[in-house]
Amino acid sequence: MIMFRCALVAALIAVAAAAWQENVRPKVFAQLVSGVDDTHKFLGNETHTDFFRLLLRDGNYLLVGGRNVVYNLSLTDLTEQRRLIWYSPENDVKMCVVKGKDEESCQNYIRVLVSLGPGRLLVCGTNSFKPFCREYGVQRDSYHMEREKSGQAVCPYDPEHNSTAVYADGELYSGTVADFSGIEPIIYREPLQTEPYDSMTLNAPDFVNSLVHGNFVYFFFRETAVEYINCGKSVFSRVARVCRDDRGGPHRFKQRWTSFLKSRLNCSVAGDFPFYFNEIQSTTELIEGVYGGLNAQLIYGTFTTPPNSISGSAVCAFSMQDIADTFEGTFKEQSAFNSNWLPVNNAKVPEPRPGTCHNDSRQLPDKTLNFIKTHALMDESVPAFFGEPIVIRTSFHYRFTQIAVDPQVKTPGGKAYDVLFIGTDNGKIIKAVNAISYDSNKRAVPIVIEELQAFAAGSPVRALRVARAGRDAARLIAVSDREVLSLRLHRCSSDKISSCSECVALQDPYCAWDKQAGRCRAYSHGVSRWLDENSFYQSVSTGSHTACPHSKDAGAVGGLSSGLYDDARGENKGEVINIVQDKDGKGNSNNNEGPEVLAADPPPAAYSVETLALAVAAGALAALGAGFAAGYICGRRCKKDEDDNMPYPDTEYEYFEQRQNINSRIQAEPKLLQQVEEVTYAEPVLAPQPKPASPRATLRKHPPYHPHHETLFQFQPDAYRRDNFGTLRSHQLTQEYSDHRAMGTGAATTTASRRRVP
Ligand SMILES: *[C@@H]1O[C@H](CO)[C@@H](O)[C@H](O)[C@H]1NC(C)=O
Ligand SMILES: *[C@@H]1O[C@H](CO)[C@@H](O)[C@H](O)[C@H]1NC(C)=O
Ligand SMILES: *[C@@H]1O[C@H](CO)[C@@H](O)[C@H](O)[C@H]1NC(C)=O
Ligand SMILES: *[C@@H]1O[C@H](CO)[C@@H](O)[C@H](O)[C@H]1NC(C)=O
Ligand SMILES: *[C@@H]1O[C@H](CO)[C@@H](O)[C@H](O)[C@H]1NC(C)=O
């Protein structure tokens, strides 16, 4: 057996290594030189960290949330036009400090801002861990507060919490947490919410984005995977959706979504044992384009490996059609605790089909509603468009964070490409394209055009956006915790790019060789015949053009580009560019010699060091992949055929501990959202049910292993006798916190019955 496993692992390493592609080297490394034109910078409050959020684009203005402030910036040069100042009331700050948060957190970080109509804004802030929302009227040169209400379940408590919100049909949809300690995740639109404390619905999610499409609102997030819990803890990426016309169900479903479904997003390197980039970090808005002759609406996202593993990052795209298809497919269920999660036989799915939109959801039958409550997860995962990640990076130094896409940039000849801007957690912005996206939607060929050090190496890129203001050229807006930058999208006309072949070799959709002018340039208003391939030479898919004289050094370095340049810090240029030059090798001498064309042969030393590093990284990743796969197989094997004798005590322990944890912390915070007469359902572990028909019922009956189980169960019999659906919360609230609740706001009430554990 052991020998078999060893052989298996060895085989796996071979497979994984074979499937892994090398990092694609950027063609250009660029660095911003401060104080130079054409890069605009906004610093906000220079003495305190603003934790900036890009909140709204209002015509030629950009609204950026900060610390006790919303900044209204001009899109053209990031100059501050005006500001909306909103400090937390002193009492809230005091209470925040009393509850043990530090002074920096006990501020009002603005996290949500939507336009309610002309001249009206809804603004929500963390308000010292007591979220609040206000409506403002935009006046001639100030903002006027009109009303305010609790921002619970709309805005996070913690400024760093990963939340999302989107405004549609006059309603705000939010994905966040609804409690002080950040353990009650929620997808909310007044008055509907997801089931509280139900790990089947949301299990410690980090939301990354939300958007409206068709009849649905979609949420993108990562969460601890319930379907994987038997095999250890893992985080999966998800897309969830609710119907826009959902009005809640009858009676006990009155304040619950009746249409909440979710699917896994599959961003992986294919193989016998696929390697998954499991943790989604960001997505773009909806991108429409033509890919291999097919019209599609895509969402691009960045995905990474877990924080404690070797860092790998990828960009995957998903089509809205594929996402919708998974929601039309089979459901997933675990028929008994400890058994595998399997597809649900279609014959078991009630009519009307759970998760489809109905014009009056309040008339849906209980059968449908009960089904969707326990079957929110779809069986199929959403496959990546193009069949594979578009860009993969392995690096010990950074991971991808944010992504922005400039859709369908037209190149001479008429082909159009999506240009990807990818932020990293060490302040870089990587610009990439899929070189064959116009010709194929089955495959991706990554081209990394440029790597730009936009922020200091310790500053993660927190947001990216491509913004066009009027007839000005589009700009890339990049945000870190302390800075907002506005950057050019390209560096085509850099004087370092002096020949046709160099220009074409960039494979940058923004750039083309202007035959008439004899220089590399970008499209701008007034350039006629841009699309005429006889006037402008470009070939994004190949990087070479027959009309360009093949310069002596073309394709010299790894076939990537044509030129080897010394990096010259141009006194008036603003950027340091070195094309296909190693960052640490020769030629990077930071002198002012100006461009210098080197011989065709690449400097061997520097290049081979990089190759070595890559080899090490690939090996490590291969091992990681193999380990994962081996574990997975073992997991499946054990899980399948051993009887209920707890094959994974550790896992089990962890699972219970997690529950227990929630348990104990619930006491620390009352449930503030309005509840229907306790229609909430019991937490799996906590409320025994008479008929072990459902998987969760089985779970409840499972012999307790956790040392805390007695604590867990001690109030149960009572709870059960009283109310089948009694929540944990309803029994746990203690007098001590009623005071706290009393401090809550108008909208925030609770109807949970408060009963003490005997
Ligand atoms: C920065 O924040 C501090 C503390 O909130 C405030 O006193 C100061 O005025 C702010 N500075 C600017 C430039 O807004
Ligand atoms: C931002 O400032 C500009 C210029 O003062 C103003 O015209 C615009 O209405 C402001 N936008 C918002 C949403 O405050
Ligand atoms: C939010 O996400 C980032 C990375 O995506 C992570 O580092 C951070 O811990 C998350 N915030 C919270 C409060 O979990
Ligand atoms: C994810 O996609 C890969 C590659 O297409 C495939 O091999 C794998 O089975 C998929 N995984 C899931 C869970 O669907
Ligand atoms: C829902 O649709 C049905 C038929 O499509 C229609 O008869 C009914 O009036 C609609 N109900 C509402 C509340 O719009």
Characterize this entry briefly.
The chain has 758 residues and is α+β, with helices and mostly antiparallel strands.
Which key features would you list for this structure?
758 residues; alpha+beta; Thrombin, subunit H; ligand-binding face of the semaphorins, domain 2; six-stranded mixed sheet; 12 helices; 18% helix; 29% strand; disordered C terminus; binds 2-acetamido-2-deoxy-beta-D-glucopyranose; PSI
Describe the overall structure:
With 758 residues, the protein is of the alpha+beta class. Among the domains are: 52-151, Beta Barrel (Thrombin, subunit H), CATH 2.40.10; 490-602, ligand-binding face of the semaphorins, domain 2, CATH 3.30.1680; 670-742, no CATH class. 18% of the residues lie in helices and 29% in strands. The chain is built from twelve helices and 38 strands. The protein is globular and about 75 Å long. 47% of the residues are buried. Bound molecules: 2-acetamido-2-deoxy-beta-D-glucopyranose (5 copies). One 2-acetamido-2-deoxy-beta-D-glucopyranose is lined by residues 359-360. Residues 743-752 have a biased composition (Low complexity). Keywords: Developmental protein, Differentiation, Disulfide bond, Glycoprotein, Membrane, Neurogenesis, Signal, Transmembrane, Transmembrane helix.
